[in-house]
């Protein structure tokens, strides 16, 4: 936690950094594997993993080696020229996804924006939707990022307030309700865009028949199914993609976060040629998208995923995490949801807010993130060990116990 020596660093942030976050008072100085070390050498078990961007652990040796090697060769040429890294990366990622083509971008929000642009273009060029008439069906309580078009279909008032006017062309229906998706589709619908498991909403796993039915509905109506696997994908839930739990193959994968190996932003739209082939030179782009450094790292990340090791770890260790957390039900925990090493834990609001419990946990050396008042998210790097899981949950149990003894932490 912070001490006097950290005051300067925090004062600079307070004064010169936009206040669009409210971080816990932990000042990271170094990190390795599942652990973050602060400026005073205190270690914290990272149970957030940068919202799944650090799935393979902080500074995974293979990723760091690939980055170092590429730093010594070439880092950025823009797409005005070719690089010897882009093709191999795209081929490897397309193979991992079982698709033909990759559109590389940087942030997750850019992948979502790009996916929506591709869907609209496909709608116009292939489906025959009149220009400017396309609509996209989305789920309520979604989280797909922060651009104006994306917050245009957010249900979160704080994400939208003051940011209008918004982009038209979206229809939001309840998450988990396939019939509502079918009802919302009309002749001008080009895509259904979903998180297979809603992350920011609190790790909401849909009913078992939901994604298979959405898949059928999309196919029957000639509508693209776009799965935003930016947080749920790349081994987080025990499979390469969360969609794999239900045997569902979307038309378009949106990937980000862990694709950059925890080193840099790297995102992608991945689809077959009949979809991504609608883009022609000049119609879309990004200066840094697919740069050689990102491509070298991305190819290494795909290599890690191809071993299957991280998917196995997430499934096995996730079962342990869920068991341990479930055991706290009734002792300050109201409900536990999720799959693999991804758990949303509703805590008894009488014990304090999620933020207060997170602060107490940080004081005990475990970093988590609250969402929606009294839900905590546990999403550790997939390199976490069984003992570390047990230790983290033991700290959580102690915090809940202390909160119950101390009374409402909000007072
Ligand atoms: C499902 C999902 N989509 C998109 C995004 C946006 O990613 P980024 O913050 O890299 O723009 C996020 C970020 O949390 C996300 O969870």
Offer a quick outline of the entry:
The chain has 411 residues and is of the alpha/beta class.
Description of the structure:
The protein is 37% helix and 16% strand. It has 411 residues and is an alpha/beta fold. The chain has two domains: 4-59 and 310-409, Aspartate Aminotransferase, domain 1 (Alpha-Beta Complex); 74-307, Aspartate Aminotransferase, domain 2 (3-Layer(aba) Sandwich). Strands 4-10-9-8-7-5-6 form a seven-stranded mixed sheet, sandwiched between helices. It is globular and about 65 Å long. The mean pLDDT is 96. Pyridoxal-5'-phosphate binds next to helix 5.
Name the helix and strand elements from N-terminus to C-terminus, one letter apiece.
HEEEHHHEHEHHEHEHEEEHHHEEHEEEH
What is the annotated CATH architecture of the largest domain?
A: 3-Layer(aba) Sandwich
Total strands: 15
**Structural class of the secondary elements?**
alpha/beta
The residue ranges in which pLDDT falls below 50 over 5 or more consecutive positions are none
Family: Belongs to the class-III pyridoxal-phosphate-dependent aminotransferase family.
GO molecular function, one term: pyridoxal phosphate binding
Enzyme class: transferase
EC number: 2.6.1.13
């Amino acid at each position: 936690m912070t001490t006097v020596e950290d005051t300067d660093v925090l004062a600079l942030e307070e004064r010169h950094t936009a206040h669009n976050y409210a971080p816990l008072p932990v000042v990271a100085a170094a990190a390795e594997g599942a652990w973050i070390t602060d400026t005073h050498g205190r270690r914290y078990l990272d149970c957030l993993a940068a919202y799944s961007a650090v799935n393979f652990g902080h500074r995974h040796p293979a990723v760091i080696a690939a980055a170092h090697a590429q730093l010594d060769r070439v880092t950025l040429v823009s797409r005005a020229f070719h690089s010897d890294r882009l093709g191999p990366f795209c081929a490897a990622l397309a193979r991992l996804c079982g698709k033909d083509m990759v559109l590389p971008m940087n942030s997750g929000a850019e992948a979502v924006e790009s996916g929506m642009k591709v869907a609209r273009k496909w709608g116009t060029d292939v489906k025959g939707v009149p220009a400017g008439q396309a609509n996209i069906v989305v789920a309520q309580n979604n989280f797909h990022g922060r651009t104006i078009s994306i917050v245009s279909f957010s249900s979160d008032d704080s994400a939208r307030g003051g940011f209008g006017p918004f982009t038209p062309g979206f229809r939001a229906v309840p998450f988990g309700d396939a019939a509502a998706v079918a009802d919302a589709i009309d002749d001008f619908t080009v895509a259904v865009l979903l998180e297979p498991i809603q992350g920011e909403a609190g790790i909401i796993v849909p009913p078992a028949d939901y994604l298979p039915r959405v898949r059928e509905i999309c196919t029957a109506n000639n509508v693209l199914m776009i799965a935003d696997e930016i947080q749920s994908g790349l081994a987080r839930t025990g499979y390469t993609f969360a969609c794999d739990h239900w045997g569902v193959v979307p038309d378009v994968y949106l990937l980000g976060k862990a694709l950059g190996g925890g080193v840099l932003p790297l995102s992608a739209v991945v689809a077959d040629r009949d979809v991504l082939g609608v883009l022609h030179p000049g119609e879309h782009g990004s200066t840094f998208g697919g740069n050689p450094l990102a491509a070298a790292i991305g190819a290494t990340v795909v290599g890690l995923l191809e071993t299957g090791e991280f998917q196995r770890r997430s499934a096995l260790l996730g079962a342990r995490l869920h068991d341990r957390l479930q055991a706290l039900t009734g002792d300050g925990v109201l409900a536990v949801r999720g799959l693999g090493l991804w758990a949303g834990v509703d805590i008894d609001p009488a014990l304090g807010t999620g933020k207060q419990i997170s602060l107490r946990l940080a004081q005990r050396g475990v970093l988590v993130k609250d969402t929606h008042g009294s839900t905590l998210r546990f999403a550790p790097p997939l390199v976490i060990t069984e003992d570390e899981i047990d230790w983290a949950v033991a700290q959580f149990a102690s915090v809940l116990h202390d909160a119950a003894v101390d009374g409402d932490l909000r007072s």
